[in-house]
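Journal club prep — side note

Before the paper discussion, L.F. wants everyone to see what a predicted structure for a comparable chain looks like in token form. Sequence:
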Amino acid sequence: MSDRRSPVTLGVSPATRSVLRLAQPPARRSLPGLAAGVASAASAVALLACSAWLITRAAEMPPILFLGLAVVGVRAFALSRAAFRYLERLLSHDAAFRQLGALRLGIFARLLPLAPAGLSGTRRGDLLTRLVRDVDDLQDLPLRVVQPLATSGLVAVLSVIGVWWVLPAAGLTLALCLIVAGVVGTLATAALSARSERALAPLRGALADEVLEVVENLDVLTAFGALEARLTALSVVEDRLRRASLRSSTGAGVQAAVISLCAGAATVLALIAAIPTLGTGGFSGPALAVVVLVPMAVFEVFAMIPPAISAWRQVRSSAERVATAVPEQIPAEIPAAGVVLREDSKSAAVGDQGALQPGRALIELTGLGASWPGADRPALAGVTLRLDAGDRVHLAGASGAGKTTLAQTLVRFLDYTGSYRINGVEARELAPSDLRRVVGLCEQRPWLFDDTVRQNLLFARDTATDADLLEVLARVGLADWVRRRGGLDARVGERGALVSGGQAQRIALARALLADFPVLIVDEPTANVDTGLGDTLVRDILSASADAGRAVLLISHTPVPAGLITSTYTLSAGSGLQRDATPGGALVP
């Protein structure tokens, strides 16, 4: 990205500046709305000036011919103010909403290299608030910060010049009152509510954390009598957020009072400066009305500046939270990003794609090691393994031996030491997102979306028909179950709450089979099911995965019948990977 700085991004960290640049639409989109906003505000000031001159001049009862231009001007400025206001809203909001989509893509592109291993220490509620509420708040940068500041500043300067042209003394008093209003209003608001405005976004994140914890763990908290304590903690956070919001509102009220006071002062000072010169040098009653009444319209426009500065503090706080959702430096244990984010929110793949063509996939591990972010010792070391098409390998080992770490490493959620080659190409030379199209993972606790069975399968292959979905469900032993539930439109509940652990594993397996990974890793599929059902589930997994050309790595701490697998390995924290003497055999039907 370019490192050019604008006044809006001065004084912020590089990561925050990057987020703010993504939030601000490019000039080709923002300038039309800005021009319309300036035209609308200028028309409002011109309308009051023209109306004041027309009413005062008409009281002198001149020939109607002398009033024709002013009459047309009043009509023109009244219509143009509304028309330009509509265009400003339309153009500026369209630009902001379009940029909001690009911003979301940019934020998710920053998160992708870290997920999921690099986000294990992030609180889910706070992360959700950052990705939803804080990102939404960033649309205020063009709409409530840049647009009002630019519009108010330009119109104020033009108005001072216009009043100065009619009467220099009145122009000087208007300029002084505008400066005082801007400085005093901003300082007063900063003293009263700047800290609370910066705290609003973090407090919203803390509240979301508390609410999510109570909702997700309601049964456990109730069973252990801890619900009242959690509700009390939630109430404390909510009270802090309420007080911060009230302090922010107090600052906004003081701003409005200062603006109104300075507007009245500008009118009084204009009268004091103009009355002695009335009737001299061509300064007449209509001109007096203009220099006295124009400050009212100017301050109505200028009143947008202090709230814009207040909005800037909130936008900056949200931008800092979005920027710190992920660390500026990716931990060494996380693979380097396979996509590079550019300011146009497009991505460029890197790596040699020739090794990832559909078909046979040969995986070779030599001295493989891996660590989790922040850990003081490796979770995996010295793993040597060959996994070829048609292999069905059982990986056993005690809890903590590194089985899940190996699975996370093979799909490149974690970086590695040693060698990990796919079809002869080192894995770190490939884009992780492309590697995951070849190596698929069924996790120990598969994630199911709060939707139908159909939608939980379609995201693996969105071109699949209902017949394809029913066929793959039959392969994992769920055909009768789906039929009894009413078909593919049966809902699975939030995170699979309406299905059992074994059914969730089978849905995840069906999803993986639908994606047609040449290499499939299944991590502890029997962890959440009874022993009898677990044996059936393992048998179904290996049977359904025995397609020509597919390799399966089954990670399980429980024994697997030799006839279902081709080899068994045991992983231990101290001695690495050892092959058992269990003979392979044909797949038992």
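L.F.'s comment for the group: DSSP finds 17 helices and twelve strands in the chain. Keep this in mind when we get to the figures.
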